[in-house]
């Protein structure tokens, strides 16, 4: 019996996954699992791993958006190859992407590359912002150990 698995992910506990869950329900997913507080950059996530262990011949993995499944091109391609080896399909609702067709497979690879590019650009901006803050003597995040000792004295 074939199944349609829905997967949702939010990066922080204060984000609300309801939009994703509702879209997956509307898409007819019979089982919906999700990870809360996990980055898409992590390849191993409890609910995602559970779905990947269950999915088989004729099944389909559905996500709200491609970046919910993963952010690196390598990981997205690996997941897609694993699904194909098992005879399973992949669908992304927002991008209207379905890998059961040659064109869908082609578009998948293009969008996966764009998702990775977006992640790299965000990383570059973050590092640039941290560098500017450091030149002004500000270091975001938890105070360094030596600073805490000086403040306590």
Automatic annotation (TrEMBL):
Similarity comment text for this entry: Belongs to the site-specific recombinase resolvase family.
Keywords: DNA integration, DNA invertase, DNA recombination, DNA-binding
Keyword DNA-binding: yes
Coiled-coil region list: none
Residue numbers annotated as active site: 11 (o-(5'-phospho-dna)-serine intermediate)
Pfam families from the UniProt entry: Resolvase (PF00239)
CDD domains: SR_ResInv
Species in which this protein is naturally found: Hyphomonas atlantica
Domain Resolvase/invertase-type recombinase catalytic residue range list: 3-137
Name of the molecule in the record: Resolvase
Gene Ontology BP terms: DNA integration
Gene Ontology MF terms: DNA binding; DNA strand exchange activity
SUPFAM superfamilies assigned to the protein according to its UniProt record, in alphabetical order: Resolvase-like
């Amino acid at each position: 019996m074939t199944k349609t698995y829905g997967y949702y992910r939010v990066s922080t506990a204060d984000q609300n996954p309801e939009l994703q869950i509702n879209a997956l329900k509307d898409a007819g997913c019979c089982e919906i699992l999700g990870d809360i507080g996990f980055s898409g950059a992590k390849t191993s996530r409890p609910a995602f791993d559970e779905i990947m262990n269950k999915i088989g011949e004729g099944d389909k993995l559905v996500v709200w958006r491609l970046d919910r499944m993963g952010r690196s091109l390598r990981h997205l391609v690996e997941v897609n190859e694993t699904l194909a080896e098992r005879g399973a399909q992949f669908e992304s609702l927002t991008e209207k992407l379905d890998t059961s067709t040659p064109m869908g497979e082609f578009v998948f690879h293009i969008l996966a590359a764009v998702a990775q590019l977006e992640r790299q650009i965000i990383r570059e901006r973050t590092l640039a912002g941290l560098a500017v803050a450091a030149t002004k003597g500000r270091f975001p995040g938890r105070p360094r150990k030596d600073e805490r000792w000086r403040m306590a004295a």
